[in-house]
Amino acid sequence: xxxxxxxxxxxxxxxxxxxxxxxxxxxxxxxxxxxxxxxxxxxxxxxxxxxxxxxxxxxxxxxxxxxxxxxxxxxxxxxxxxxxxxxxxxxxxxxxxxxxxxxxxxxxxxxxxxxxxxxxxxxxxxxxxxxxxxxxxxxxxxxxxxxxxxxxxxxxxxxxxxxxxxxxxxxxxxxxxxxxxxxx
Length: 184
Prior knowledge:
The chain is of the alpha/beta class. It has a single domain (33-183), classed as Rossmann fold (3-Layer(aba) Sandwich), CATH 3.40.50.620. The protein has helices at 14-23, 41-46, 64-75, 87-91, 104-112, 129-135, 152-159, 175-183; strands at residues 52-57, 79-85, 119-123, 139-143, 163-167. A five-stranded parallel beta sheet has the order 3-2-1-4-5, with helices on both faces. It is globular and about 45 Å long. The relative contact order is 0.18.
């Protein structure tokens, strides 16, 4: 991939998509090292300070609510791993046929550039359950607009002695509302 403005082909594997982004050093600075294909997770996770906090989402158009949430998530532990819905996964969530607006490689790079984030990895499934089995975080967090007690992710993380909690929701910030406002 010559640069990130070139659309990532849908049939590339997750590893190929991240490797292409990571290897493009002309465009990407050091934060590209935070991009982690699922196959590379075990050795990369072993280098992270504990406790590890995990969260997930689409993070389509990053806004103040997102970055505040991610900073709070990181403050709950020593390392933050973000599971990012792939384009395919994001489209399955019913946010609209035109979403995500930003492709997965671009969304991953923006997240990786944040100081609060240690690793970003994609998942193609509708939920991050399979990814959580690999990461095995000590803490799973979601925004306060979720009831963590009803999430299958919570039960899974608790099965190995981890915990889950909802972090305060930053009112007034929503990608869906922002998109609607832009479209007028």
